[in-house]
Amino acid sequence: MKEKKGIGESLGRLLKDPSSLALVLTSFIVLILFVIYPLIVVVFTSGFDNWGTFFSKPRYGRALLNTIVSSSLSAVTATIIGFIYAYAIHYSNIKGKKFFRVIAFIPLLAPSVMSGLAFLLLFGRGGMISHWLNSVFHIELDLYGLPGLWIVQTISYFPLAYMTITGVLRSISPNLEIAAQNLGARGFYLFRTITFKLALPGVINAFLLVAINCFADFGNPKLIGGNYSLLAVEIYGEIINNEPGLASVMGIILVIPALLVFWLQNKVLSKGSYSTVTGKPVSGLNRVTTSRKTDVLLFTFNTIISIFIISMFAITILFAFTKNFGRDNTFTLDHLMKVVFSSSSPAVLNSLVLSLVSAILAVAFALVLAYIVIRKPFPGKKLLDFSAVLPIALPGTFVGLALIVTFSKGPVVLQGTAALIVIAMLLKQMPVGYRGLTASFKQVDKSIEEAATNLGANSRKTLTTIVFPMLQKTVVANFVYAFMKNMNTLSTIIFLITPKWVVAAVSIFNYAETGTYYWAAAVAVGLMGATLGTLGVIKLIFRSKVKIFDF
Amino acid sequence: MAARKKSNSSVIILAVVIVVLVGGFFLYKSGVFGGKGKEKITVYSIFQEEEARKILDKFKEETGIDYDILRLPSGEAVSRVQNEMLNPQADFLMGGPADSHEVLRKAGALQAYASSNASDVPDNMKDKDGFWTGFYLNPIAIGVNEERWKEKYGSDPYPETFKDLLDPKFKGEIGMSDPATSGTAYTAFASLAQVWGEQEMLDYMRQLLPNLKERPKSGIEPIQKAAKGEYTIGVTFLGDQLKIKNQGNPIHSIVPEAAGYEIGALSIVKGGPNEKAAKKLMDFMLTNTPGEIYTQSAYAVSTKPSVPIPPGGIDIKSTKYNQDYDLWKAADQRKDLQDALKSLR
């Protein structure tokens, strides 16, 4: 049977299927209201005057330049470190690979500001290591500004690069390397001509991803940027000075490179951006491995990086459980009781609840969207698809800005509600799930559903009995990913929190900024505990069906 | 097949548990459970959360009223309260310079409440209609790093007046924040303009510029850097200096003649969700206990004469600060003076 095409035909079929019609309409309403409409409002809020102000004041130009310089630097180093780290795990014979994998995973548990916080505790003006250097060698460490930012962003984003590159390395077939070796290629020559060449698209992709993340990073620059001012921080300043117009101008400027990268990824590197989800390891042949000398080097390298990461977590934990680490090392649960388990500061509990709600909604919505986009014919499908993936390209700061500018005035007022926080988190995570689910949907052959339909099942029955069970793995994986990201998000929701709904990442940031480090550390520990606990429960329920700690 | 069934039913159980817990939490948050006994007040705090929490915990202990708190810088607090005027989220605004509260009063965002406990707060430290009431005051002071002074200037006497800072020997040795962005530095220059006249103040600033190492954005930074030995002298609020001194840094503070001062104020947000509790909190804040908690931790001086000076603090009445400093005038002149100061190079 040939499918009939044309708008009239597809509309007609949709009208005959009321449940699908409802799904399509809801999806359109949600995406237009929360993605398209805020974008339009932001563009209108940035009036001509504000564009003039932006380009006439050297201050903003410098912030833009600083942002470009620091993100590029951090992205280069994070990608290099990520590559070497991944290469060591996949190509060498070093011991402790499992350990190194876990180490690269744990930064994902922590909010990005936590690396900034840990850096302050170690290398800040009064930090542990700076203090020690000063008293022993009389070296005064002042890493505020670009150097500190560079180090912190490198460390906090290298796991992202690592995961992206791992996906690519796994999918490289050993055949080519073995063939090259048989033809006489050895050592670095083999690496340069074969392995690296094959991995290059993934490496570029990792670089772009990290660069965009650094570009939009807000917490770290605010904490350790010092006088080195960045765009995301300037946006925050203009929002708190009640200058939404100027903030919108900068928001738009922040979005441009992100959109460019997004476009590049789709056009040039259409593969590999979520290779951690889709990349399949190649089994069978054993690949060529490194020499003993290289192994030693790689092992040393990974150990150094691991020590860095471990010490960041260790110092945070030490601060959380002592009265005032360095001055008074008495063990105490006081900080945790005060800022994690107290009824007047349920920041961690708030984070947990909002993240769960938002992650569930995000996955459910992604499921609906993927289903109707792949399976149902209807007009405006391209628009729906575009607005569903668009938020991936928008930096968190911009999403938060757009939501606050749009929903604090006008026909729909949501300012000061928990709903707005949930929506902000949902917008950032839903597209990832949507992409994954459309891919899985494509893998489920349509004929199975058609068979069910022929046997008399309606849409809903087909979905619940045939399609969803087959998607369970992707759904759970996406839920876990969305939940973890929600727990740690800062820049997206910093403008949206209310006194009732203070979330943990914002608390950490506030306490760190005002120098109350032990509270910041306590909230960070509480947040990671809550994330781990929830993941543990999920793991208990799904057992081997989900791989949470193994990327 | 059995395994699938089992996992499906556990998924359903999990879903139900999550829905019940999350739903319950939302209902709890919106005050459905707990009945009327559970009052909760929402506070925007401009002063440090640690001090605010100490005071609010005490308040909770005494009245049983729980609290939600959000700490904000003063600029953000002002714009939040103003933006939320149609649907106020907070009940109480705690701390922050009185001119911020004055901005909100003019915008009509505050609720007048003359607490009977405010009677001993001097008239120049509260709004006459009770829209805001001063809680602490903090004069401008010259902070000298004693170690660095000894290295550079030996046994020379410390500068006692603002004019002493013009001495060429201090070239590049003084830190003061930028009056265009920092309330601290603005307070200093606004007071000088009131005492000396605007022209003389501007002349003074012009002569002072070569001695300034830098002009950071935030008010507290100069003394932090002076304490670290990056320069010898930092001009900031006295409380910041005492706090740093009491952390073990060699800082000597002098409050010079004509030094202006900041009044940290309290106010009630108009139309907030829990006005009754806000009034109770205002009454409580103006008793001695909160004043003591605050002064002992932030080293500012209470507006209430009955609150003692904390150990390590300085009684500002014994100093030469400008008692006639008119913050209303300073608030009115703000834009003009800042523009004039900005154009000095």
Automatic annotation (TrEMBL), chain A:
* Sequence ranges assigned to domain ABC transmembrane type-1 in this UniProt record: 64-265, 348-536
The family database entries (InterPro entries) matched by this protein are listed as: MetI-like, MetI-like_sf
What is an annotated GO biological process for this record, any one?
transmembrane transport
Location(s) in or outside the cell: Cell membrane; Membrane
Q: Which keywords describe this protein according to UniProt?
A: Membrane, Transmembrane, Transmembrane helix, Transport
The UniProt transmembrane annotation reads 21-44, 64-87, 99-123, 143-169, 189-212, 246-264, 296-321, 352-374, 386-405, 411-427, 493-512, 518-542
Query: Could you say which protein family the record assigns here?
Result: Belongs to the binding-protein-dependent transport system permease family.
This one is known as ABC transmembrane type-1 domain-containing protein
Give the organism, scientific name: Paenibacillus azoreducens
Highest classification ranks of the organism: Bacteria, Bacillati, Bacillota, Bacilli, Bacillales
UniProtKB/TrEMBL annotation, chain B:
Taxonomy, superkingdom: Bacteria
Does the record carry Hydrolase as a key word? no
Keywords (A to Z) from UniProt: Membrane, Signal, Transmembrane, Transmembrane helix
Pfam families noted in UniProt: SBP_bac_6 (PF13343)
Q: Which Gene3D superfamilies match?
A: Periplasmic binding protein-like II
SUPFAM superfamilies given in the database record: Periplasmic binding protein-like II (SSF53850)
- GO cellular component, as recorded: outer membrane-bounded periplasmic space
Q: Which residues cross the membrane?
A: 12-28
| InterPro entries from the UniProt entry | Ferric-bd (IPR026045)
Instruction: Provide a GO biological process annotation.
Output: thiamine transport
Q: One MF term from GO for this chain?
A: thiamine binding
Give the protein name, as stated in the record.
Answer: ABC transporter substrate-binding protein
Source organism: Paenibacillus azoreducens
Q: What is the lineage of its organism?
A: Bacteria, Bacillati, Bacillota, Bacilli, Bacillales
